[in-house]
Specification:
Layout: H1 4-17, E1 25-31, H2 35-47, E2 51-57, H3 59-67, H4 71-85, E3 90-95, H5 108-128, E4 130-135, H6 139-145, H7 149-160, H8 168-180, E5 183-188, E6 191-196, E7 203-205, E8 210-211, E9 215-218, E10 226-230, E11 235-237, E12 240-242, E13 246-250, E14 253-258, H9 264-271, E15 280-286, H10 298-301, E16 307-312, E17 331-334, E18 343-346, E19 349-353, E20 356-357
Parallel strand pairs: 1-2, 1-3, 3-4, 4-8
Antiparallel strand pairs: 5-6, 5-18, 6-10, 7-9, 9-15, 10-13, 11-12, 13-14, 15-16, 16-17, 18-19, 19-20
């Protein structure tokens, strides 16, 4: 028997997030999720007159393919998948995981090869289709969040089926304020960072590309970042758990990177993936009222209420500073008082303190106005 929450989520993804129109082709990309959810997506797409196509993925199979990846193999796969993506007007990916570290023993050079080969597919999907990507709740995610499976499922559906239209006025105000700004100054424990965002577009994200959602992002001028930053949210990248990441910048470049637990070398290995990996491709302010604690799942953690994230690597085309990289690693700092507090200034004006926007139009994004 299907859970009625599956149908509610499927309708949100097809009607609100991707706004499917009659006759449009949508690729439903299912990763280790219940068959009933894929069926719900197919039915919701058809109800709106769209034409659904489905790809089924499994984590252990993806790991095995990547473990001995060869360029000749993935070049052909990328060619085939790009040809299919070029036939689509929309893309919905629901990504479950029975083991969040499934890819941790895949050699890094193999993962780099896979990511590089598949980059044209991702670029086309992001630039040319209406897309939305989300995680699927699992026992592994419940463990990450420190919840029972049932408790986490309730949390997941509450967050993912939020009325995202409530965010629109505040997001519009924040987008406009960022686009008027030049200098950004961020202060907090272990953090004193300055950079420019002058002339770079800002993007409001309220349920259109990621679920859960709740952020407005822009991008630093590539060579403008100066100072230090400490990230107080744990993170996972290519199957490896990182904690206590600290970065030091000079002229936009990470000149020193540290990570707790003996992982400094591993961190720097990622930052040395290519020339662009040591420069920043995104700066974002987040405000989802239901997401309060990190759980090493970036689609949730990057939306934590009162947080911001700073992203070594590839810049999005929509908010572009020209940085190019195969890396895009969102690192999160939470500025609520329970995480040590902090301040964000735009052109010397304090716009957010201890995770709360200052009174005015931006205050519409504080939790009590969204939940």
């Amino acid at each position: 028997m299907s859970d009625p929450r599956y149908d509610q989520l499927a309708k949100l993804l097809t009607n609100f997030s991707t706004k499917l129109q009659p006759g449009e082709r949508v690729l439903i990309d299912s990763y280790d999720i219940p068959e009933a959810m894929t069926v719900a997506l197919i039915r919701a797409a058809r109800a709106g007159g769209a034409l659904p196509y489905v790809q089924i993925n499994h984590g252990r199979i993806s790991r095995e393919l990547a473990r001995e990846a060869e360029a000749a193999q993935y070049d052909v796969q990328a060619e085939l998948e790009l040809a299919r993506m070029q036939k689509m007007q929309a893309y919905i990916a629901v990504r479950g995981s029975h083991n969040i570290t499934e890819m941790s023993d895949v050699p890094s050079e193999r993962m780099k090869l896979v990511m590089k080969s598949m980059r044209p597919v991702t670029d086309y999907r992001v630039r040319k289709t209406k897309w939305c990507v989300l995680r699927w709740p699992s026992s592994a995610m419940a463990q990450q969040a420190g919840m029972s499976t049932e408790q986490f499922e309730d949390f997941y559906f509450r967050v993912c089926t939020l009325d995202y239209s409530k965010m629109e006025p505040g997001m519009a105000a924040l987008k406009a304020r960022l686009e008027r700004a030049d200098k950004v100054h961020i202060r907090g424990p272990g953090t004193d960072l300055k950079f420019s965002i002058k002339g770079i577009k800002s993007i409001a994200c309220g349920g259109s590309h990621n679920i859960p959602d709740g952020e407005v992002f822009t991008c630093p001028v590539r060579d403008s970042v100066e100072g230090t930053i400490s990230f107080n949210a744990p993170t996972i990248y290519l199957g490896t758990n990182f904690d206590g990441i600290k970065l030091e910048f000079q002229k936009g470049k990470v000149v020193r990177g540290e990570a707790a637990g003996g992982l400094t070398d591993k961190l720097n290995e990622v930052l040395d993936s290519d020339e662009g990996a040591r420069y920043i491709g995104e700066f974002s302010l987040a405000f989802n009222p239901h997401i309060l604690q990190p759980m090493r799942d970036i689609l949730f953690d990057e939306k934590i209420s009162g947080s911001f994230h700073f992203t070594p690597g590839q810049a999005y085309e929509e908010a572009d500073n020209g940085n190019r990289s195969q890396v895009h690693w969102d690192m999160v700092n939470i500025q609520r008082p329970d995480y040590g507090g902090g301040e964000i200034f735009l052109d010397s004006e304090l716009i957010r303190k201890d995770g709360r926007f200052i009174d005015g139009p931006l205050a519409a994004l504080n939790p009590e106005n969204l939940a």
